[in-house]
């Protein structure tokens, strides 16, 4: 069965029509003005020495060196950022924490087809980097 097709019972169809809801995206429907939103993931991974201030601007942060004898403290903050899946379950999470004493923000999307990481963070974590041809990515805001 094609994944883009939903099956509804007669009472569900009547209820959606009465409430004026779109059958595809469940948003308010209008015959000429309605457009279903695109399902896209906006992602921003901050690299070593980067942070976001209260205005949403990326800023450079100073990092502190940790002595090897000290025990490393692991603190992870997990925030659900309100992206709902088709079944009404949360499927996108924002994780903030430290990887090898480098502050990092990670967005986890269980429905995403690709994963991204900042080259600065990958280098700082000493991960192998394989250079590939550039790809264009279209974000939910059209950019």
From TrEMBL:
Protein name: Pentatricopeptide repeat-containing protein
InterPro entries (alphabetical): Peptidase_aspartic_dom_sf
Organism superkingdom: Eukaryota
């Amino acid at each position: 069965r094609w994944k883009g097709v939903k099956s509804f019972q007669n009472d569900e169809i009547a209820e959606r029509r009465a409430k004026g809801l779109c059958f595809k995206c469940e948003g308010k429907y209008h015959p000429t003005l309605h457009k279903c939103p695109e399902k896209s993931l906006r992602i921003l991974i901050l690299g070593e020495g980067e942070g976001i201030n209260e205005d949403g601007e990326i800023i450079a942060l100073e990092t502190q060196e940790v002595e090897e004898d000290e025990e490393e403290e692991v603190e992870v903050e997990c925030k659900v950022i309100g992206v709902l899946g088709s079944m009404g379950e949360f499927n996108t999470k924002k994780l903030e924490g430290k990887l090898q004493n480098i502050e990092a923000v990670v967005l986890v999307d269980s429905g995403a087809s690709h994963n991204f990481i900042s080259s600065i963070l990958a280098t700082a974590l000493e991960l192998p980097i394989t250079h590939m041809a550039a790809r264009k990515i279209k974000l939910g805001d059209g950019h």
